[in-house]
Amino acid sequence: MKNKNSHITSNPFAQTLLKWFAQNGRDLPWRATKDPYAIWLSEVILQQTRIVQGWEYWLKFMERFPQVKDLAAATEDEVLRLWQGLGYYSRARNLHQAAQQIVKLGRFPSTFDEIKRLKGVGDYTAAAIASIAFNLPVAVVDGNVYRVLARYFGISTPINSTEGKKEFAALAQSLLPIHAPADFNQAMMDFGAIQCKPVLASSATSPNTLQSLFAPLEGCAVCPLSDTCVAYRTSKVNQLPIKLLKVKVKTRRMIYIYIRCKGYIAIRRRASGDIWQGLWEPFLYKDDVDLPKADVATPPTAVFPDFPTEASHIASLKHILTHRIIYAHFYLQETDVRSPLPPEYIWIKEQDIDNYAIPRLIEMMLEKLHN
């Protein structure tokens, strides 16, 4: 639980922020403990995940694996199954491997450098754990922190450039009160999430685009830092922070056949080096960026001569990932004879599919199938 007492500091920025945090900080369950395992778990879950969704998963993991040794002793399938629906499954695999590292070490690592050696832990996560669990004076820098600092100090260096990362990290560290690292870091994150919010996407497409570009956000009117905020003073709130253009999003087309034979279905575990590593899927008939945009009106038999004519269409879905848009078509093939399939496929009882971790796309397919 955050400390509600204000801390004495000669840094006006930190002083104002800590005072704001004491009154407005979010009351989250992982803040009610100093257990580094519980804190680490929350930080990994909340990467690329909204708090309202991550909260539920954190509770499920803490109930199923109350101690790090319980997580380490689990199978990868158990971990992936509990993680199902959160996406970015490499986080779950890294979490599992890191738990085994910790058990092998015999204790939870207690320094920034030690924590950073855990699988899947970078600077931000290591700093969060080090400061919150062990009260070490290490500043965190995430999207919220970038936004607050860029606006308050009027910094135009791109936040995802090498120069920007160094500049913001050094600035955050210089502002950190060494006697209150946990509260300060959590205050920065909460301030960015609650007070100094991102520009709404709709602003860029509104009829008054130019006007909205220079208009301050609603929160600025009641922001305790507005009097000394460079972006607010210079009408650049909606222009900061600056980020370099993202990687181009690619399109991928996939055709699945859900093969059912006398109560059994064929599935395989996806290999490493691609999306959904370690998760299970039905028979993947085609996977190509150049597949035609066939829909229900264009049966695949018209394009692929070897496609089973008895297969019936289940659904066509669009699934968006970070750098990919997947157009997937699903078909059901009922058969009395098990089809010859590549060796990586196995046959399982259809009713046992819940024991296997599957991607959200396949989960949506099954929902269509059973509705």
Domain module tally: 2
Order of helices and strands: HHHHHHHHHHHHHEEEEEEH
Structural class: alpha+beta
Share of helical residues? 25-40%
CATH class division of the largest domain? Mainly Alpha
The name CATH uses for the topology of the largest domain is Endonuclease III, domain 1
Largest sheet: 6 strands, mixed
CATH-level-2 architecture of the largest domain: Orthogonal Bundle
Outline, from the CA principal axes? globular
Description:
The protein is an alpha+beta fold and 371 residues long. The chain has helices spanning 12-24, 36-45, 51-64, 68-73, 76-83, 90-105, 112-116, 123-134, 143-153, 162-175, 181-195, 209-214, 230-233, 360-370, and strands spanning 250-261, 264-269, 280-288, 312-320, 324-335, 345-349. It folds into two domains: 12-190, Endonuclease III, domain 1 (Orthogonal Bundle); 250-370, Nucleoside Triphosphate Pyrophosphohydrolase (Alpha-Beta Complex). Strands 1, 2, 3, 4, 5 and 6 form a six-stranded mixed beta sheet that branches. It is globular and about 75 Å long. Adenine glycosylase active on G-A mispairs. MutY also corrects error-prone DNA synthesis past GO lesions which are due to the oxidatively damaged form of guanine: 7,8-dihydro-8-oxoguanine (8-oxo-dGTP). GO terms for molecular function: 4 iron, 4 sulfur cluster binding; 8-oxo-7,8-dihydroguanine DNA N-glycosylase activity; adenine/guanine mispair binding; metal ion binding; oxidized purine DNA binding; purine-specific mismatch base pair DNA N-glycosylase activity. Residues 45-194 form the HhH-GPD domain.
